[in-house]
């Protein structure tokens, strides 16, 4: 059970969350680490959503200026 949990949390979760939000899986891992260090559980919960909003906003600004 521990092996299955580790595989799901470290291999599958970043890929699934990255596809859902539109971010690279390594960026999802980095956001989870930084969010948990800065804001604890709340940073883990809302960090990926905040990173998705920031990425979407920067993509919009970049597309509008091009």
Please give a handful of descriptors for the protein shown.
66 residues, mainly alpha, 3 helices, flat
Structure explained in plain terms:
It is built from three helices and no strands. α1 crosses α2 (25-39) and α2 crosses α3 (41-65). The model has no long low-confidence stretch (mean pLDDT 88). The protein has one domain (2-65). The longest helix is centred in the C-terminal third of the chain and has 25 residues, at 41-65. By secondary structure, it is an all-alpha fold.
Write the layout of secondary structure elements.
Blueprint: H1 2-21, H2 25-39, H3 41-65
Assembly state here?
Answer: single chain
How many angstroms separate the termini? 50 Å
Tell the overall outline: flat
Order of helix and strand elements from N to C terminus = HHH
Number of strands: 0
Average pLDDT: 88
Class derived from helix and strand content: mainly alpha
Counting H and I runs of at least 4 residues, what is the number of helices? 3
Number of spatially distinct domains: 1
Helix content: over 70%
Q: Which value, in Å, is the CA radius of gyration?
A: 14 Å
Q: Main beta sheet: strand number and arrangement? A: none
| Beta-strand residue percentage | under 5%
- Low-confidence segments, given as residue ranges, are none
